[in-house]
Fold this sequence. Notes:
Chain A is an alpha+beta fold. Helix content of chain A is 34%, strand content 26%. Chain A folds into 3 domains: 4-48; 57-169, Uridine Diphospho-n-acetylenolpyruvylglucosamine Reductase, domain 3 (2-Layer Sandwich), CATH 3.30.465; 175-283, 2-Layer Sandwich (Enolase-like, domain 1), CATH 3.30.390.50. By secondary structure, chain B is an alpha+beta fold. Chain B starts with a strand and ends with a helix. In chain B, helix 2 (88-95) packs across helix 5. Classes of the chains: A alpha+beta, B alpha+beta. The A-B interface holds A 1-5, 7, 27, 30-31, 34-35, 38, 47, 49, 51, 75, 98-102, 104-105, 186-188 and B 2, 4, 21-22, 24, 43-46, 48, 51, 54, 57-60, 62-65, 67-68, 111, 114, 129-130, 132-134.
Amino acid sequence: xxxxYHNPRNLEQLFNIVNGTGNCTLFAGGTDLLVKMKKKLxxxxxxxxxxxxxxxxxxxxxxxxxxxxxxxxxxxxxNSEIIxxxxxxxxxxxxxxxxxxxxxxxxxxxxxxxxSPAADIxxxxxxxxxxxxxxxxxxxxxxxxxxxxxGPGQLSIxxxxxxxxxxxxxxxxQEGAAFMKSGQRKALAISVINGAVWLKVNGNKIEDxxxxxxxxxxTPIRLFDVEKWLIGREANEDVFKKAGxxxxxxxxxxxxxxxxxxxxxxxxxxxVYNGLKTAxxxxxxxxx
Amino acid sequence: xxxxxISFKLNGKDMKMEIKPQLLLLDMLREELGLTGTKNGCxxxxxxxxxxLFDGKPxxxxxxxxxxxxxxxxxxxxxxxxxxxxxxxxxxxIDEGAVQCGFCTPGMLLSAKALLNKNNDPSDAEIxxxxxxxxxxxxxxxxxVKAIKKAAKMKxx
Lengths: 288, 157
């Protein structure tokens, strides 16, 4: 590995480096970056280490959102009291990532920036209506998390921009959520498919719902058609089962080394059904 | 080639090093400092043979740059126990026959150490989760889990 190492201590220094230096590769947890560099899949000229920038660390509540800074590790998310209380679905997803070692290194900003269709944190963030703040020397821009993914490994981000914050909406009364993952084994498994559900009920009616799936398309997706169909219906097992069947029809997975498209379709249905059921149980709406 | 000065704590001792920024933490430990207890296995973060504790938490030293140790505390398997007395975990691994070829053992010990530091009475499930990033290809997991359980019950001296 041959690269120039940059170690900014604050955002100003970061933007000076990013703007004044040729091709820069941002270095957060390194669990994907270093693997790609060792295999020579990428050969960065400039490595910009973000870990010295305190403004990119920490979890800060702000109104009905939680600000999760990009350098927060999966381990910090899994063990954060405020996330476990107010946005537990993200903690649930973080706990399923890799291994203890990877969770101690890998960051939420890296999980997004890497733009893997199978990223575990992303569906959980998507169902909490997450936004991403991108900062550059020109200023700040806020985008819907869903809109930043262009394809496998491709992020819609302008040159000079850095992910500076991730905003996730906290769970309120009568709202429940769940994360589901199907991998080939328990530890260190890249998701064959993953998904998350957020549900808001009023009495026994579904008032609002968000469903997100990963590894069934080139980017993580929201199932808007299924969501639309669910709103206003009764929250019960039959309806959830039908929603699962609909999910199976709208996803467009591929055959790859981890699984077949047909299998992914079938598991999509199960993930949507189980996710809705679990979310409702957590509001107290179905017997355990 | 530019070098960077770093200072950090290694196995309880203050260290100062002048290193190339491209150097991996694993290579600094093994090649520059001669601490070969930390193993180079898959090199991709899958096997856990390179596990060290970074501020008390297990990480893969094969995916970390040595410069990132600056200002932090690193524990390798050489930092467990003392010349005179083994760490209870090391003793329990010997007593239970939890070592076969031994390649995964340093990483296993450190993942177990991180667990016992925050939980002195772990369940089997908690132990298995804590060592889920450490692969043993001799398939000796049963005895490893048993040894960690035993060490949790032994008194630290």
